[in-house]
Amino acid sequence: MEKIEIIQDDIAKVKADAIVNAANESLLGGGGVDGAIHRGAGPELLVECRTLNGCSTGDAKVTKAYNLGASWVIHTVGPVWTGGNKNEDELLRSCYQKCFQRASELGITSIAFPAISTGAYRFPLERATCIALEETIAALKKFLKIQKVIFVCFGKNAFEAYQKILTEKNPI
Ligand code: ADP
User: Fold this and answer.
1) pLDDT tens digit sequence for 22-63
2) Atom of ligand 1 nearest to the CA of 31
3) Are 81 and 121 in contact (CB under 8 A)?
């Protein structure tokens, strides 16, 4: 799975055709990944986001990336973790599926993801990481044009979880 790369960085600094934003349903800005992406992109991003009428949980919408080192931002809204009985797993799966679908529609070859829902939305990190990697492995089989998926981890904890779970999903 050399198409999957795991790095420790700020997603707003990553160069890829598209970077994924862990947004909220309003698409009008927030903290964490969303704050970093809007700061890096500049105010025009918010202007474009205002035209989108928000985004449902589990869906994804595309904008330009303005001053970021990417061509596109794919905004997706992860579920808020409330214990696991509110369809959180399937909604998180849907985020990854919709992002890959959008990437394929854009015809791009590289995409960078943050650990969607694992910050303010409190989804357990290892559980979210399993979903992220399962959906990525499936998408790479389906969308052959995508050559590189970068998981951008904020901190050592997330970095180590992604490395461990990738090894489990892909024993050499
Ligand atoms: P959510 O609301 O979907 O939980 P957050 O932005 O709060 O989104 O957090 C998602 C994950 O991204 C968390 O693991 C958090 O530590 C991480 N994170 C926060 N800022 C950044 C950043 N600038 N680059 C990459 N990851 C980040």
Assistant:
1) 999 999 989 999 999 999 999 999 999 999 999 999 999 999
2) 6
3) yes
Residue 143 and residue 104 in contact, taking contact as beta carbons nearer than 8 Å: yes
pTM over 0.85: yes
Q: Is 116 in the pocket of ligand 1 (CB under 6 A)?
A: yes
CA of 22 to the centre of ligand 1 (A): 7
| Domain extent listing, the chain | 4-169
**Nearest protein CA to atom 10 of ligand 1, as residue:** 119
Closest CA to 75 of 127, 51, 90: 51
- Measured between its terminal Cα atoms, the distance across the chain in Å is 10
Tell me the per-residue pLDDT of 67-126, one tens digit each, with 9 for 90 and over: 999 999 999 999 999 999 999 999 999 999 999 999 999 999 999 999 999 999 999 999
Kindly indicate whether the domain formed by 4-169 is annotated with CATH number 3.40.220.10: yes
Ligand 1 contacts CB of residue 22 (under 6 A):
yes
154 in ligand 1 pocket by Cβ < 6 Å? yes
Is residue 129 lining ligand 1, measured as CB closer than 6 Å? no
| Catalytic center residues | 34
